[in-house]
Amino acid sequence: MFARQLETPLVSEAEYLAYEAAAEFRNEFHDGQILAMSGGTPAHSAIAVSVSAAQHNQLAPRRCRVYSSDMKVRTGTGNHYYPDVSTLCGTPEFTADTPPSLLNPTLIVEVLSDSTEVFDRDLKFRRYKTIPSFQVYLLIAQREVLVDMFTLLPDGDWKQHTATTLDAVIDIPLLDVRLALRDIYFNTLYNPDDPPQDDPT
């Protein structure tokens, strides 16, 4: 998904939540700024669905949940985002506001676009790190075969693993999930022989 800052003064978290409860369209909240969400590309949508489906099929026998981009996530700094996919095993915890925000995701997935990649890799990642349960971050490119996985280590550092071929597999031991890139990119508009397409936004 893409986001743009609304031309409004900085607001409190409570003011954002009241705004979001009455809003017709979804908005994120970043450091006092309300960010209006807009639609993504066909490839963006297809990749998000593929990642959700692959996780769901492997996690269904256990007490695990996979949420789509309709689920808002609250960070420890009071920011609220709509990641493309969020996953946890066990009992989900939510805020009391409407719509509620998830408090304890283990894995978060963002499908990258030209307009959001820098934000997703830097500032948003920093805010996600303030969620105590958060341990795995997947960044998935839509203009090329590229998946970056960041995993929290016991010493507090984050280890990066990058996959760049359709034959590669992302192994997530924490959830006992394996994601094949060929499945992630299945049925997208991406073709390795085609030139990159401009981001429609």
Description:
By secondary structure, the protein is α+β, with helices and mostly antiparallel strands. The protein has a single domain, classed as Alpha-Beta Complex (tt1808, chain A). Helices cover 21% and strands 30% of the residues. It contains 5 helices and 14 strands. The chain has helices at residues 13-22, 42-59, 117-121, 123-128, 181-184; strands at 2-5, 27-30, 33-38, 64-67, 72-74, 80-81, 85-89, 101-102, 107-111, 136-140, 147-152, 158-163, 169-172, 177-180. The strands form 4 sheets. It has a 6-stranded mixed β-sheet with strand order 4-7-9-10-11-12, covered by helices on one side. A hairpin with a 6-residue loop joins strand 10 and strand 11. 34% of the residues are buried. Mean pLDDT is 90; it is low at 192-201.
Key descriptive features of the protein:
three-stranded antiparallel sheet, 201 residues, 14 strands, six-stranded mixed sheet, tt1808, chain A
